[in-house]
Design a protein that fits this description.
Blueprint lengths: L2 E7 L3 H13 L4 E5 L6 H9 L5 E4 L13 H13 L4 E5 H6 L14 E8 L7 H10 L4 E7 L5 H10 L5 E6 L4 H5 L8 E4 L14 H6 L11 E7 L7 H12 L3 E7 L4 H13 L5 E6 L4 H10 L3 E2 L1 H6 L4 E7 L2 E7 L1 H14 L10 E5 L3 H12 L3 E6 L2 H11 L6 E5 L10 E4 L26 E4 L8 H8 L3 E3 L1 H17 L5 H14 L1
Parallel strand pairs: 1-2, 1-8, 2-3, 3-4, 4-5, 5-6, 6-7, 9-10, 9-11, 12-14, 15-16, 15-18, 16-17, 18-19, 19-20
Antiparallel strand pairs: 11-13, 13-14
Helix pairs in contact: 2-3, 9-18, 13-14, 13-17, 17-18
The chain binds NADP nicotinamide-adenine-dinucleotide phosphate.
């Protein structure tokens, strides 16, 4: 069993008791009481004896990131008192044990608390990590714990290996944001414990995930060794809604998967190194990826280099947002898709109750010429629409028009100031104008085209759920498509590509709405 342990930095007894109660309420089965500021054994006894969850007691040395002023002998006294008061486990640095030549516990395990010998490096991977693991295995520790600052997401693989190859119950933690997955996936890899924070403000180590997120987003209760791993690759990634959406969908259909964030630096080399390492690490069972900024072009290039199959329109657009890893034993094949373009097309054709082929000849104004603008233009041009691009930077609109004109339909660029004179049946905003926090802006503010009941206005922005542009369009009686429609469609298509199961689109939509409402 992997314990879900909330780490509590204890300032006073009342706060500790409150936090322990909250940790239990939020689903932890253990707490770590960090008593670095304590000097009085009686207070520690009182704290431990009133703790309502099994606890680890830690009084961390300054050399390994703690705050205590006590010397090693005094700390050992404090921990021993905690053990006598009923602590389940006591954590002491392995270096402290060695520096003092302490032999470790003398009583049999069933007559005393378990000893966790820990080692921390807040700079990087410890130089002698392999020897450290051997020494911990041979030591009197009941549980071995190593934690180090992740240099990149790839360090997690070594942590997973340590959890799997354990000689005794172990924890291997990569600290900082790229290392978050060592905490999220600790249960899958059979670690002794994963440390979580009570809330985002009270983390006791970098990259700690809250207990609520581990339980409610990352499917803690459902994780097991056979669980397949999916994730979103990007930089930044902290505010991505994709983990919440996909994990809820896995939950809803009972799929044995977990979806995590992969923070990967923006270069192609970083992306490639991530792919090569994570695809080959068989126990992870990487099943698929969502790819977001800045890696959509890198994903296409990587798949091309690997000779993977790639959806033709994704190649044409020059961006892959979905990677499917089809596994057959130790072998796997890769496939790349772009579910953004299909989401744009299907949102339009479903609203108009037409087929994609019926887009031929329709007059479409695409506002914006960035990544989403490019996707919309390519998709519409492929199905023969008559597209005009309006963009603040005219040169980008011109270049995009040149690239896709004649693909099947006509594509031209026009000055953004002429948007008011646009004669289009469909308007698609792919700029960030009107996006949170600038919710009082709209691309129609300076130039409002002639919009009627037969016009369709599509805003790809999903935060806020209803943009000013959509309100302006509705006031004129036009039909509208909100960005959440596209967002849910692209996520649902990814889900189906990975699982082969119909996506619970309504459940996914509810997750987006509820997360936007609380943000
Ligand atoms: P991007 O590549 O950076 O492109 C941004 C576009 O917005 C460019 O055309 C840029 O014009 C224009 N722009 C930015 N600020 C502007 C301003 N103040 N005035 C006029 N134009 C401005 O970004 P992206 O990835 O395409 O994303 C664009 C939008 O698409 C975002 O709002 C996002 O919410 C939305 N989106 C939605 C979904 C979905 O699933 N619903 C998915 C992806 C993106 P210049 O060329 O002149 O800089």
């Amino acid at each position: 069993m992997t314990h879900l342990c909330v780490s509590i930095y204890v300032n006073d007894l009342a706060q500790a008791r409150r936090d322990v109660a909250l940790a239990a309420e939020r689903g932890a089965d253990m707490v770590e009481l960090r008593v670095d500021t304590f000097t009085d054994e009686m207070e520690v006894r009182s704290l431990v004896s009133s703790c309502t969850l099994p606890c680890i007691v830690t009084c961390r040395s300054r050399l390994e990131g703690g705050q205590t002023e006590l010397d090693d002998v005094q700390r050992l006294g404090l921990l021993t008192a905690a053990g006598e008061a009923g602590a389940s486990y006591l954590d002491i640095e392995f270096a402290t044990m060695r520096d003092n030549n302490w032999a470790g516990p003398s009583k049999p395990r069933d007559q005393r608390p378990g000893w966790i010998y820990s080692a921390h490096d807040f700079q990087s991977r410890p130089l002698g990590l392999n020897q450290l693991i051997i020494d911990l295995a041979q030591s009197t520790a009941d549980i071995a714990k190593v934690a180090w600052q992740a240099r990149s997401v790839r360090d997690n693989i070594e942590a997973f290996e340590l959890m799997l190859q354990r000689h005794k119950p172990s924890a291997a933690i990569c600290m900082s944001e790229p290392g978050m997955i060592s905490r999220i996936l600790a249960k899958k890899f059979g670690a002794f414990v994963s440390f979580a924070s009570l809330d985002s403000a009270s983390a006791t180590a970098p990259g700690q995930v809250t207990v609520t997120d581990l339980k409610q987003i990352y499917r803690w209760d459902a994780q097991r060794a056979s669980t397949r791993v999916y994730g979103v690759v990007g930089q930044p990634i902290a505010h991505s809604m994709s983990p919440a959406i996909h994990n809820r969908a896995f939950d809803h259909v009972g799929f044995d998967g977990v979806y995590v964030p992969f923070l990967i630096e923006g270069t192609y080399e970083s992306f490639k190194a991530f792919m090569e390492t994570f695809l080959e690490f068989q126990p992870l069972m990487l099943g698929g990826l969502s790819v977001t900024i800045p890696h959509k072009e890198n994903a296409l290039r990587y798949l091309q280099e690997r000779g993977a199959t790639i959806e033709p329109l994704a190649e044409l657009i020059g961006a892959v947002n979905t990677v499917i890893v089809a596994r057959d034993g130790d072998d796997y094949t890769l496939h790349g898709q772009n579910t953004d373009y299909a989401a744009i097309l299907d949102a339009i054709t479903d609203t108009l109750s037409i087929t994609r082929d019926a887009l031929a000849g329709r007059r479409v104004a695409v506002i914006g010429a960035g990544g989403t603008g490019r996707t919309a233009v390519a998709a519409l041009a492929r199905y023969g629409a008559d597209v005009t691009i309006y963009n603040r930077s005219a040169d980008r609109a011109d270049a995009l028009a040149k690239e896709f004109d004649g693909l099947s339909g006509k594509v031209a660029a026009a000055a953004i100031v002429s948007l008011g004179a646009a004669d289009a049946e469909i308007f698609i905003n792919t700029t960030s104008v009107g996006m949170h926090p600038n919710v009082d802006a709209s691309p129609f503010d300076s130039a409002t085209p002639d919009i009627t009941e037969s016009t369709l206005v599509f805003d790809t922005i999903y935060n806020p759920l209803e943009t000013k542009l959509l309100r302006q369009a509705r006031q004129r009686g036009a039909r509208t498509i909100a960005g959440i429609d596209m967002f849910v469609r692209q996520a649902a298509a990814q889900f189906e590509a990975w699982t082969g199961i119909a996506a619970p689109a309504d459940v996914m939509r509810d997750v987006v709405i509820s997360r936007l409402e609380v943000s």
